[in-house]
Amino acid sequence: MAKRRKKVDSKADTREIVRLKDYQETEAFFEYDDEEAEAAGEARLKKMRVPKAVYRVVIILILLILGLALWINRSSLTLDNITNWVRLQFVGEGRGDGFPVPITGSSVFASNFTSSGGNAQILSDTALTMVDSSGKTVLSLRHSLNQPAMRSAYGQTLLYNQGSTGYLVLSGTEVKLRGTADREILSGVVAQNGRFALGLHGSDGASELNVYQKDGSLQYTYAFAKDYITAIAMNYDGVEGALSTGRSERGEVRSRVRGFDFHQAERRACYETRDNLLIDAAWTESGDLYAVGDSALLIAKSTDYAFSEYSYDGRQLTAYCLDQSRAFLSISAYAHAGPCTLLVFRGGGDPVRVESPERIVSLSVSGGTVGALVNGEAVFYDYSTGVEQGRTDAGSDAKSIALSSERAAYVLGVSEVRTLEIH
Predict the structure, then answer these.
(1) Phi-psi bin for 157: left (phi > 0), alpha (psi -120 to 50), beta?
(2) Cys-Cys with 165: which of 99, 181, 267, 353 at CB 3.0–4.6 Å?
């Protein structure tokens, strides 16, 4: 019995020793493998690690891009514009009921219909209305102006009563200022920072230029004895400006363009053109000056005011549009119908010419596209080449178009505003 128990115990001991040894060897093997893998992984990470210099270069490039974007859009980065953007992000655009949208009031002049920030701006005989791309009315402002006129620049809008004394200044959809001029208003303009200018009938002479700070306080005034102000232009911060005037002398129309620094008492320069009534002016972002006349376009650099004239050679001006850095004119040899030539000016040099077999009655610009209203159709051109991008029906009652993008536009009809798009 004792021998049997000893034999059994021997076998049991042997099995327990083998199992313990195997367990210990297995455990030791895995610990060794993990250490080796960890060391190999660290070596691979060291090889893959990006040098610190690369991070510095990337950060510098990002900062340069952000700085360039801020510099390009510096004129639009006003407190009012930023406030309006923040308000839009929290409140949201909402959605409208679509188009067409009926006009508030009984009539809208083509010059009082435009697009700003993707919204349509409609100044009728009774109200200023702003409508977004969904047809939602974002502003409906009643006014009491008998002959309302509108000038806009980067979200700033000046409304004034042409031939009377009332005016309003808006930033986005917010009324910033209401005022009454001392005498009847001839013309007006607003700068991108909210400063504005009014051309008034003179107290002792023909007319007077008044320049105002954004709070409505008078900054600058200049009187003309014989000349009547027809148009005013200001640079982006309202520090400099140019205006056109006209008068009749011995049966001849004489127009002048004058340049001003509103910190100085005297004008900077003066240029005269004859038999050419100037009707509008613009000071572009690139420092070019344009003055549109009924028989010629005047072009100059604001640095020297050395004007040159581009004559229409007896042809009639049918439509025009002054953009941030360009001037677009349509001229025709026919009084009421017939083909037109679209001219695109970008500073000096010869203009791009686009021939239209039908009469152009309205022009609008967005990005690199100019849109023309031609015989009830909206035609889109690449303004740098003159190549047609597309066309679509605008309606038989269309009076004006205002591009909301390079492929879409608002259309002013007799009693409504519509939208169109090319594909």
Answers:
(1) beta
(2) 181
